[in-house]
Amino acid sequence: MLSREEVQHIAKLARLGLTEKEIGKFQKELSSILDYIEKLKEVDISKVQPTSHSITRALAKGGDTAAASSIEMENVTRDDIENDASLKLKIKNKKLLKLAPETKDGYLKVKSIMRALAKREDERSSSPTRAFAQQK
Known about the structure:
57% of the residues lie in helices and 3% in strands. The protein has 136 residues and is an all-alpha fold.
């Protein structure tokens, strides 16, 4: 079973604030998930053919093509075809970019909302009203 410290460390990495009750709950839940993964590792999958793969394992590891041909997969996708709708959308996008006050690499450039929110939160926490409310 995961220790309380391990759960707290995972929560910290995920930037989650957990109560003592939640730490206990996640300690059990995460432990059961890890136990299940250990059970899955015991299953023999040596004779199971892969159902999808972007590139064969042997080729990805620098192996020879003969070994890869036994499990060779083919990526079945279509080529992108420009039609009237996609051309109209491209034209609209270009017009929008021309109207924008600032662009970067073909995208609209906007101010960061995260900085503005952080600044607003800092202002709120330093206000006298907030400090008075926290004292009560």
